[in-house]
Automatic annotation (TrEMBL):
Taxonomic lineage of the native organism: Bacteria, Pseudomonadati, Pseudomonadota, Gammaproteobacteria, Pseudomonadales
Site (May be catalytically important): C146
Name of the protein described by the UniProt record: GTP cyclohydrolase FolE2
InterPro entries referenced in this protein's UniProt entry, alphabetically: GTP_cyclohydrolase_FolE2 (IPR022838), GTP_cyclohydrolase_FolE2/MptA (IPR003801)
Domain of life: Bacteria
Length: 292
């Protein structure tokens, strides 16, 4: 029995389409030797305006062919080339996106504790106008302490010191007790959990995906990445890092811009930081791009 192929029938509107494909495809991928659950999207353009559709099953089967391979730019280029080979005469551009969580075991700042952190990552690969590109996107949480709030808090503490010790001969023990009390430290700066959204275009198409380098470079530039398991000594060290690392969203974006420019394999990037304000009911945002 011959099954009907409605998709093979010509469309009277004859309109090319920029993009046709699938999204939300469950797919295991291999990252640094480990199997990771990913969500994939895949598609091609449709230059033949009379065609009713593409061969989605061919895209789906091509995706399955990369499950066992270590994810790399070369593997993605081969995949997109297969997309186009199976759509000869229909398509000239192809795209694939893979999203997954990248787990890193992070040590505490002081103690021997450690814990896992999850970094959401998306890998976008495309062939368009015969040019192949791979872009990495990662979202990283960190703490940001407001420099303005810190200055205002210091001023209040100074004034409280003058009020409490006016005309009194200073004694070391009394000053230390005052510094350790809520009567002395009458104000503290506000901090907030913040996020850096980093998107980097790779300059080379070699066999590696620099996920860890990108994450480590981002966290090193910010200086106050959120922690996992902590003891009181770790929490104190984190408080110290925040106090010595005050930043507006503009400061964070500039730090990350410099850090991304130093990556030898970055051929362009987009940096966006979001500080979820604890003072305001809105977020503070800054963006910086290079060669985008």
């Amino acid at each position: 029995m011959i099954l009907p192929d409605i998709a093979a029938q010509m469309d009277a509107q004859a309109l090319p389409l920029d993009w046709v494909g699938m999204q939300g495809i469950a797919l295991p991928v291999t990252i640094e030797g480990h199997r990771v659950n990913a969500r994939a999207s895949a598609g091609v353009n449709l230059i033949d305006g009379r065609s009713r559709g593409i061969h989605m099953s061919r895209l789906y089967l091509a995706l399955q062919s990369i499950e066992q391979d270590e994810l790399s730019p070369l593997v993605l280029r081969r995949l997109l080339s297969e997309f186009l080979d199976t759509h000869e005469g229909l398509s000239t551009a192809a795209h694939c996106s893979l999203s997954f969580d990248y787990l890193v075991n992070r040590p505490a700042l002081i103690s021997s504790l450690a814990g896992w952190k999850s970094y959401p990552i998306t890998v976008d690969a495309s062939i368009k106008n015969e040019m192949f590109h791979v872009e990495l996107f990662v979202r990283i949480a960190y703490s940001s302490t407001c420099p303005c709030s810190a200055a205002l808090a210091r001023q209040l503490i100074q004034q409280q010191f003058l009020d409490d010790f006016a005309g009194i001969e200073l004694q070391e023990e009394a000053v230390l007790a005052w510094l350790g009390s809520s009567e002395g430290i009458v104000a503290t700066p506000h901090s907030q959990r913040s996020e850096a959204h980093i998107k980097v275009r790779l300059a080379t198409n070699d066999d590696t995906m620099p996920f860890r380098v990108l994450i480590d470079s981002t966290e090193a530039a910010l200086g106050t990445a959120v922690q996992t398991a902590v003891k009181r000594a770790d929490e104190q060290a984190f408080a110290l890092a925040n106090g010595q690392n005050l930043m507006f969203c503009e400061d964070a974006a500039r730090r990350l811009h410099v850090a991304m420019q130093a990556l030898p394999w970055a051929n362009g990037f987009s940096v966006k930081v979001e500080h979820a304000e604890s003072l305001h009911a809105h977020d503070a945002v800054a963006v910086s791009e290079w060669r985008w």
